[in-house]
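Exercise 7. Given the encoded structure of a 603-residue chain, write a plausible sequence.
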C-alpha cells in the first residue's frame, strides 16, 4: 500500500514517540528520506534508519544517533506550499478553525503574506506550520458541507473511512444539533428513486439496504417512534424474531477478567452481546442491537438453561427454582473498534455459585456458556458478501433473559427461531398466516366479530349524521329568523331616531328668525335627515346671510311718511343700482319677484 508524505511523517512520529520518547515529550520530524529520518526530541536532534511495510508498521534499523543539524533556510515558496497543505488538511479534519493554535498561526502567516515578504520569519513560520500539520493529521477525519464539518458518524454511506470525499447521505443537521428528524427525512429521501431534490448521492443500488439500515438505526437512537421513521428508510420485509443466541463469539463468560474476590461473592463478568457475525454467520448484530442490549438486559434474570418447548407452552414466565442470578452494571465498551455490551452476573443460587467456583478452579469455566433469550428486529441483507439476518435492534419483552447454558459456541441451542415450534404459538411473534393455518375457526370468529362491530359503528355513524343534519337545519332556520328580527329591530330604531331628529329640526326651523321661504328651503334640505346634526349651523349661516342682505338694502319714505305702508305698488324696482342686486339676492333665497322687491326696499 502506498502512503502519502504526510502519512509517512505521521507514522514515523508516532513510532519514534513510542520507541524513544517519554509519554509527555513532543517529537518533531526535522527531515526525512526514503530510509532515514532526522527528528528533534527535547533540545537534541537524532537520526535513525527505518522501513515501513504495506500495513504501515515501522521498523527502526539500529539505535538513534545524535546529530548536529545545519541551518537550511526554507524559501517562502516552501512555506506557502506547507500553508496550502495545512488548509487542505484542515478542511478534512474534525476540528474548528477558531481554535487558538490554528487561528493564531493563520493570522501570523496572513499578516506576513500581505506584506509580500516574510523576511526573517520564514524559518520560524515553517517550523510552526510543520508542528501544526503534525497535530492536524492526528485529528479525526471530517467532511466539509455548507452547514459545517461532520465526522464519519454523521453519514449513512461511508465506503472509504480514510476518504471523506467518499462519504454520502448526511444524517446530522449540524455538529451542535446532531441528527434531527428533519435531516433524517432528507437522508431517507436520498435513497428513493428520485433522490432528495434530485440528489441520490451516487449510492450504489447494492448498498441501499445498509444505508437505510443506518438511517433507521439513527432514527431509533434519537427516539423517533417506529411509525414516524421516514418511509424510504423502512424495509417492507422487516421482521421480529425470537433469538436464543449462545454463540461464543457473541455471548460468553469473560473468564480472563474473573477475580477471586468477586468470584467468592458470586460475581462473574459476562459479555451479553457483541457487534458482528455469529460463528455460523446466520446473524449480524449492529451497534444499535448492542446499545439496546445494555438497556433491556440491565437487571434481567438469569436462568439455568433455556426453557424447553413444553416449559415455554406451560410456564413461559419460567420457574423460580431455575432462577440463579441477575445481570447488573451493563455498559457498552469498545475494543479494537468492536462494541460489546458487558456486565456482571450476580449469582444468588448456592448450587450455581459452587458450580462456577469449581469450574473456574479446574480451568473449565469457559465450558459454561451464556445465552440471550430475546426478541430481535431486523431484515435479511447482504453483509460482507454474506446473506444474513441483520439484527438492527432488540425489543424489550417481559420474558427476556440471559441464561447459563451447557453448550456455548455454534452448536447447542444457538440459533434464531424463525418458525413457530410445533404445538406452540408465541404471542409476541405470531403472524396472521400462522394463526390462519393453526386456528382457522378462531380467525373466522374474530373476523365475524370485527364485521359485526363495523356494522354497529356504521349504523351509529348514520344515526349521528341524521341527527347532525336535523340540528344543522334547525340552526340555519334560527339563524335566518334571528337575522330578520335583528334587521327589523334596527329598522325600527332607525325610524324612531329619524322621527326624533325631524322633530328637533322642525322645532329649530320654526324658532328661527328667517323668512318663510328660507325656512321652507331648510325644511326641504333636511327632509330626509336621520339626525339633527348640522341644522343649527345651517340656520346660523342663513341668518347671517339674511342679515347681510337686509343691511345693505335702502328703506324708502321713513321721514316723509312715517305711517306709510310699503306695498308692491309703491315700490320702484328701478330705483338705485343696489336695489336690483339686492332683489336678485332675495330671489336666490327663494322669494318671488314682488316679495324680493319688497324685501330689497326695506320692511
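Solution.
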Amino acid at each position: 500500500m502506498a502512503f502519502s508524505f504526510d502519512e509517512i511523517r505521521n507514522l514515523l512520529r508516532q513510532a519514534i514517540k513510542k520507541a524513544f520518547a517519554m509519554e509527555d515529550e513532543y517529537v518533531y520530524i526535522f527531515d526525512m528520506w526514503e530510509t532515514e529520518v532526522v527528528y528533534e526530541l527535547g533540545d537534541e536532534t537524532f537520526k535513525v534508519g527505518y522501513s515501513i511495510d504495506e500495513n504501515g508498521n515501522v521498523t527502526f534499523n539500529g539505535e538513534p544517533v545524535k546529530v548536529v543539524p545545519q541551518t537550511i533556510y526554507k524559501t517562502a515558496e516552501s512555506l506557502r506550499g506547507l500553508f496550502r497543505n495545512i488548509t487542505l488538511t484542515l478542511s478534512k479534519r474534525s476540528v474548528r478553525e477558531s481554535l487558538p493554535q490554528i487561528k493564531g498561526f493563520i493570522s501570523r502567516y496572513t499578516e506576513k503574506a500581505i506584506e509580500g515578504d516574510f523576511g526573517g520569519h520564514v524559518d520560524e513560520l515553517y517550523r510552526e506550520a510543520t508542528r501544526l500539520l503534525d497535530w492536524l493529521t492526528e485529528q479525526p477525519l471530517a467532511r466539509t458541507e455548507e452547514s459545517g464539518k461532520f465526522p464519519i458518524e454523521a453519514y449513512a454511506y461511508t465506503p472509504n473511512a480514510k476518504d471523506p470525499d467518499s462519504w454520502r447521505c448526511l444524517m446530522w443537521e449540524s455538529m451542535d444539533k446532531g441528527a434531527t428528524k428533519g435531516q433524517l427525512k432528507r437522508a431517507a429521501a436520498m435513497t428513493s428513486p428520485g433522490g432528495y431534490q434530485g440528489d441520490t448521492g451516487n449510492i450504489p443500488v447494492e448498498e441501499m439496504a445498509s444505508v437505510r439500515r443506518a438511517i433507521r438505526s439513527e432514527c431509533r437512537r434519537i427516539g423517533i417512534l417506529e411509525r414516524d421513521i421516514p418511509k424510504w428508510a423502512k424495509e417492507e420485509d422487516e421482521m421480529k424474531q425470537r433469538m436464543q443466541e449462545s454463540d461464543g463469539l457473541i455471548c460468553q463468560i469473560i473468564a480472563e477478567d474473573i477475580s477471586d474476590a468477586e468470584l467468592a461473592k458470586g460475581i462473574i463478568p459476562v459479555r451479553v452481546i457483541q457487534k458482528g457475525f455469529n460463528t455460523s454467520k446466520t446473524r449480524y448484530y449492529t451497534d444499535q442491537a448492542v446499545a439496546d442490549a445494555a438497556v433491556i438486559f440491565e437487571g434481567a434474570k438469569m436462568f439455568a438453561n433455556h426453557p424447553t418447548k413444553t416449559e415455554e407452552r406451560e410456564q413461559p414466565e419460567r420457574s423460580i427454582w431455575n432462577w440463579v442470578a441477575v445481570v447488573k452494571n451493563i455498559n457498552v465498551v469498545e475494543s479494537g473498534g468492536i462494541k460489546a455490551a458487558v456486565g456482571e452476573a450476580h449469582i444468588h443460587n448456592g448450587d450455581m455459585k459452587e458450580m462456577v467456583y469449581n469450574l473456574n478452579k479446574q480451568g473449565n469455566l469457559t465450558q459454561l456458556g451464556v445465552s440471550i433469550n430475546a426478541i430481535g428486529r431486523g431484515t435479511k441483507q447482504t453483509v460482507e458478501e454474506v446473506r444474513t439476518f441483520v439484527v438492527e435492534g432488540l425489543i424489550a419483552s417481559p420474558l427476556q433473559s440471559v441464561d447459563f447454558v451447557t453448550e456455548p459456541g455454534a452448536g447447542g441451542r444457538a440459533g434464531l427461531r424463525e418458525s413457530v415450534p410445533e404445538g406452540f404459538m408465541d404471542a409476541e411473534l405470531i403472524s396472521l398466516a400462522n394463526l390462519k393455518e393453526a386456528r382457522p375457526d378462531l380467525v373466522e370468529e374474530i373476523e365475524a366479530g370485527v364485521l359485526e362491530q363495523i356494522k354497529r359503528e356504521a349504523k351509529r355513524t348514520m344515526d349521528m349524521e341524521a341527527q347532525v343534519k336535523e340540528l344543522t337545519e334547525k340552526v340555519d332556520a334560527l339563524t335566518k329568523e334571528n337575522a330578520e328580527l335583528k334587521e327589523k329591530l334596527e329598522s325600527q330604531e332607525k325610524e324612531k331616531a329619524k322621527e326624533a331628529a325631524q322633530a328637533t329640526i322642525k322645532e329649530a326651523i320654526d324658532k328661527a328668525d328667517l323668512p318663510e321661504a328660507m325656512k321652507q328651503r331648510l325644511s326641504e334640505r333636511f327632509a330626509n335627515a336621520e339626525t339633527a346634526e348640522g341644522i343649527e349651523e345651517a340656520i346660523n349661516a342663513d341668518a347671517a346671510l339674511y342679515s347681510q342682505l337686509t343691511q345693505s338694502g335702502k328703506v324708502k319714505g321713513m321721514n316723509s311718511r312715517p305711517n306709510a305702508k310699503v306695498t308692491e305698488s309703491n315700490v320702484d324696482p328701478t330705483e338705485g343700482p343696489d336695489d336690483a342686486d339686492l332683489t336678485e339676492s332675495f330671489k336666490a333665497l327663494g322669494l318671488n319677484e314682488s316679495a324680493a322687491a319688497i324685501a330689497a326696499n326695506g320692511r
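Remark. Confidence is low (pLDDT under 50) at residues 408-426, 553-577. Students should compare their own answers with the one above.
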